[in-house]
UniProtKB/TrEMBL annotation:
<dbReference type="InterPro" id="IPR002068">
    <property type="entry name" value="A-crystallin/Hsp20_dom"/>
</dbReference>
<dbReference type="GO" id="GO:0009408">
    <property type="term" value="P:response to heat"/>
</dbReference>
<dbReference type="GO" id="GO:0005737">
    <property type="term" value="C:cytoplasm"/>
</dbReference>
<dbReference type="Pfam" id="PF00011">
    <property type="entry name" value="HSP20"/>
</dbReference>
<dbReference type="InterPro" id="IPR001436">
    <property type="entry name" value="Alpha-crystallin/sHSP_animal"/>
</dbReference>
<comment type="similarity">
    <text>Belongs to the small heat shock protein (HSP20) family.</text>
</comment>
<protein>
    <recommendedName>
        <fullName>SHSP domain-containing protein</fullName>
    </recommendedName>
</protein>
<dbReference type="GO" id="GO:0051082">
    <property type="term" value="F:unfolded protein binding"/>
</dbReference>
<dbReference type="InterPro" id="IPR008978">
    <property type="entry name" value="HSP20-like_chaperone"/>
</dbReference>
<feature type="domain" description="SHSP">
    <location>
        <begin position="90"/>
        <end position="201"/>
    </location>
</feature>
<dbReference type="GO" id="GO:0042026">
    <property type="term" value="P:protein refolding"/>
</dbReference>
<dbReference type="GO" id="GO:0005634">
    <property type="term" value="C:nucleus"/>
</dbReference>
Length: 201
């Protein structure tokens, strides 16, 4: 059993802010700096872009876990992803967000659904030696009446924390971490581990 843990919190707030700026962009992998935000590379569709090949099965498992938790996995006439998206339209809490954390001898991987936030800010931050935080924020406008009516702005946020035991600065392969965001809203974070060779023992 993995010692990797995860904590999170989501909130919906009414707000008068005028705009929000996305922080995702096409950049190179970032060094593993303490208490620093990592660039998030924009990619293609999750199930078509080869960048996500190693994460696809984990994401499907995460979706299945959410459907099982909410008792909707028995509706066999509809595919799992469609059922999941329908569920998320009703409930945007942490419990209904598809998240999977895995690790092997080479790396830790976090794959999570952030589709409801891709029109706003999505940030990935390394905190200390062994924690990664993912946060998202989006501003939504809703009209309160007919023509010329005032718009109501609502800010939606989430914040998740992932503890990756055993990952220290000196143990990360080349000091590199990659974060990729698919165009349909699946975030994949890979934290390589340093391989221990016989020569280094």
């Amino acid at each position: 059993m993995s010692g990797t843990t995860e904590r999170g919190a989501a909130s919906i707030l009414e707000d008068d802010c005028l705009s929000t700026t996305a922080t995702v962009g096409s950049r190179r992998p970032h060094s593993w700096n303490l208490d620093s935000f990592l660039p998030v590379d924009q990619r293609g569709l999750f199930f078509q872009d080869s960048f996500f090949q190693d994460a696809q099965q984990n994401f499907q498992a995460a979706v299945k876990d959410v459907l099982t938790k909410f008792g909707t996995s028995d509706e066999t006439s509809v595919d799992d992803l469609t059922l999941y998206r329908t569920l998320r339209r009703r409930d945007l809490g942490d419990e209904s967000q598809a998240v999977k954390i895995t690790e092997n001898h080479h790396s830790h991987q976090v794959v999570m659904d952030v589709r409801d936030y891709i029109k706003g800010d999505i940030k990935v931050k390394v905190v200390g030696d062994d924690e990664v935080q993912v946060e998202g924020e989006v501003l939504e406008e809703e009209e309160e009446g007919g023509n010329g009516a005032k718009s109501r702005r609502r800010r939606r946020r989430f914040h998740r924390r992932f503890h990756l035991p055993g990952v220290k600065v000196e143990e990360v392969e080349g000091g590199m971490v990659t974060a990729g965001l698919s165009s349909d809203g699946v975030l994949t974070l890979t934290v390589p581990k340093k391989l221990v060779t016989t020569a280094s023992l």
